[in-house]
Structures are given as structure tokens and as C-alpha cells.
Amino acid sequence: MEDFIKVEDLTFEYVKSEDGTAVRAIDSVSFSVERGSFTAVIGQNGSGKSTLAKNINALLVPTSGRVMVDGLDTSVPEHVWDVRSRVAMVFQNPDNQIVSSIVEDDVAFGPENLGIEPVEIRKRGDEGLTGVEMYDFRKKAPHMLSGGQKQRIAIAGAVAMEPECIVFDEPTAMLDPRGRDEVMSVIKRLNGKGITVLLITHFMEEAAQADKIIVMDRGVKKMEGTPEEIFLRADELKALSLDVPPAVDLAMKLRERGIDIPEGILTIDDMVNCLCR
Ligand code: ADP
Ligand code: MG
Hints:
Layout: E1 3-15, E2 22-34, E3 38-42, H1 49-56, E4 64-69, E5 72-73, H2 80-86, E6 87-90, H3 94-97, H4 103-113, H5 118-131, H6 147-159, E7 165-169, H7 177-192, E8 196-200, H8 204-207, E9 212-217, E10 220-225, H9 227-232, H10 234-239, H11 246-256, H12 268-276
Parallel strand pairs: 3-8, 3-9, 6-7, 7-8
Antiparallel strand pairs: 1-2, 1-4, 4-5, 9-10
This protein binds adenosine-5'-diphosphate (ADP) and magnesium ion.
Residues 14, 23, 25, 43, 45-51 line the site of adenosine-5'-diphosphate.
């Protein structure tokens, strides 16, 4: 598969306006993301995950190093528009992302800003809402909806821009378990349709569903690998204040008690399938 995103030796520093001192939020990070893949980024608070996300859709540009999106260098000002039309972002707080008082107007906002024709906007909005199972709510007021429903509206808005990639920055952090499940199924469905997904999360069971996990710590990439590879390294994760998914933890504890649980159990579903075999 071809690389859609290439992060090459990326360093990013925030410069404080008061005294001009620099805070290094990302330190020489390199990785690539295949077109159509699902990558999760984990790491404790302040490890640089959001800064990384913003460097991928040109909200920030590298202090040094390079970020390439679909062959476009994000630091070239002429590319900003093309980068943003390829990479949409969904943030943590659905309330901060809702701009209209009617669901379907909200979903139309992104495509409108891209200068799309009204008929096409309507079509994309309807498709976006159908994709997140919120079409029946199109005439409703967003503030009447649950957190999970609002977040799905925000995702429909991103989908309506027809991006190749969506970067989700802790999209489930403010949701209840049901809302989290709803949003995760939408993310997986979009990925199944070919959208490249980058998911920042602190829920290990969400990261376990990715093709690849990147572990960040204080601006540095500490690990990169498949969920199977990463969650075998439970002690190293613990040293970074990170956990393993509940099913992995359970599998480890059962093995300690002498029960033969095979490797590669990552999710509750895996565990159920294994125990019921
Ligand atoms: P995460 O998303 O993993 O919690 P962030 O990317 O938000 O991490 O932050 C990484 C580091 O950059 C932290 O030390 C944070 O304090 C710092 N930082 C983030 N945003 C700013 C900003 N606007 N100005 C200065 N420092 C910032
Ligand atoms: Mg963050």
C-alpha cells in the first residue's frame, strides 16, 4: 500500500508570546500512514498528540522536519487548502464543533466553506447523516441531542467534505460508554469504506481495533507496531502510565493462573470467541 501521510523527523515548538521561549511539543518524530489504514495514537496528557494532529492538517507547520500529505508538503502555503480538503479533523468536544441550530445546516457548513454547489452540499449532507445513522434527526436542534449523537453530527460534517483522511482527536473522551460505542462503530465503518483514519485516544480498547499503534511520550515516539505487538509490552506501557486493554489484562491474569489463553486476544469479543470455542 502507498503512504498517504509521511511524517519525517518532525519537530514542533510553541513559542511563548510573553518571553519568546520555546516549548518543544514534538521531538524528531517519523512515521508513515498507509492510504486507507487505521492508525491509533496513544500517550499520556501533554505527550504531543494534539500537536501532531494539527501538524497533519496544516493547522500548524513544522519547526523542522517535514509532513507530507498525499505528496503535498504541508509547510508550503499554497498547499494548505489542498491539505485541508484531504484531511478533516474531529475534536473532543462536540459542543465546540457545532455551529448551526439545525442539524442539516451544521453538516452543510464544511462543504459550504469549500465553495461546493448547493445541490451537491445537500446530497453530501444527506449521505453524511445517513452514514452516521442520524438522517432522521436532520431537522432537529443539535443541543437536544446526546453527546454521542452530537459527535456523530460533527463526523457527518467532516464526511460531507469528502476527505481522504479524518483525524479524530479524542472523539470519545467526553462521551458515555454508549456514545463511545456509537462513535467507534462509525469510525470503523468509515475506515471500511476506504477513509484513512488517525485516531487519538486514551481508551486502549479503541486503540486495539487499529491496524497500527503509535505510542507518544513527552514529544517522542516511543513505540510503533500492531496492537498485538504493542500490547505485549505491558510493562513498558505501564512505565509510560499507559494500560493495556481490559481483555489483554484479563488474558494475562488467566494465563498467570495456568489457564491456556492464546496470544492475540485484544478485545472483549476476541475473549468471548476464545472462551466459547
Ligand atoms: P496531548 O494532546 O498529548 O495532551 P499537546 O499536543 O496538547 O499534548 O501538548 C504537548 C505539549 O505542548 C504540552 O507540554 C503542552 O503544554 C504544550 N502546548 C500545547 N499547546 C500549547 C500552546 N498553544 N502553547 C504553548 N504550549 C503548548
Ligand atoms: Mg490532546
